[in-house]
Amino acid sequence: MKSFRGEICVILSTLGFGSMGVLAKGIYESGYGVLATLTFRFYFAGLALLVYLVLAKESFRISKKQGLLLAAIGGFFYSAFSICYFAGLRFTDASIVAFVFALYPVIVTLLNFFFFHETMSGKKILCLVLSVLALYILTRSPGANVNLIGLAISLVGGILYAVYTMLLDHKDLQSLSPVVTTFYIILSTGLVLTLICLARGERLLPISPSQGLSLLSLGLVSTAMAILTYNTGVRILGSTKASLIANFEALVSTILAMVFLGEYLTWIQWIGALLMILVIFLISSLDGKKSLEE
């Protein structure tokens, strides 16, 4: 029964993260900008995590070194890959953006090989080859019609996200709980995005009731709830089993985009998508890790 509860938590997390693209595109259609959307996403998510931490009586105490590190991670990397993810949605389908970001374990493998000289096993090389093939089928096959600007932005975001997940393993952050770490990262990200919005003169207010509801859903459901339920699932199931379930996130995004946005993949693209899911499963089983946030 406890295991089942953990599985439900991770499934809810996957649904939450998977709905991000659909909610964001709906907000864009109402005339709201990328940066303003992200800013409110982190306002609402940060407030929800703050309430959770207070109710759970978790300590907020961090050292000066930890604070500077979290501010740098949130202020640059989290802000940057979030902008890439949400900007990518402006140009291409939600499913494409989701699948590109889902390849971050493959990118981490490449970064570890080039910068830290980690050994590249035969299985990892196979995963790299298959991921390139899957991405090509998904984005360049006949009938795919994928916007190259959106694809390029998503790829840059995927690389930044991979670096971000590597930074979360920093030894100075190991003593902090995942939720506390995420709270401070989201706090610094929200502050940076607010400054960017003010500098660019981007409108934050007023917002209509429908925009407010969508922004609230984006912050609470697709961010705070998704983070907390995934964290709970990891505690119950362990990181390996939880990450295997969470690997279906890109597929969830694809299905929701079909239902709510009318964004369909061709049958050839489905082959690429399923191959990519296989690659993600393989590389995750080799790593046994998944980042808490998206």
Class inferred from helices and paired strands: mainly alpha
Backbone CA Rg = 18 Å
Give the helix level as a range of percent: over 70%
Overall strand count? 0
Low-confidence stretches: 289-294
Total domains: 1
Tally of helical segments: 13
* Average residue-wise pLDDT: 92
Task: Provide a concise account of the structure shown.
The protein is mostly helical.
List keywords for this structure.
globular, AA-Vitamin_Transporters, EamA_dom, disordered C terminus, transmembrane, mainly alpha, 13 helices, single chain
Describe this structure in words.
This protein has 294 residues and is mainly alpha-helical. It has one domain. The chain is built from 13 helices and no strands. Helix 2 runs parallel beside helix 12, helix 6 crosses helix 8 and helix 10 runs antiparallel to helix 11. The longest helix has 29 residues. The protein is globular and about 45 Å long. Its main location: membrane. It holds the Pfam family EamA.
List the helices and strands and how they pair.
Blueprint: H1 2-18, H2 20-29, H3 34-56, H4 64-91, H5 94-102, H6 104-116, H7 122-140, H8 148-167, H9 178-200, H10 209-237, H11 239-246, H12 249-261, H13 267-287
Helix pairs in contact: 1-10, 1-11, 1-12, 2-10, 2-12, 3-9, 3-10, 4-8, 4-9, 5-8, 5-12, 6-8, 7-13, 10-11
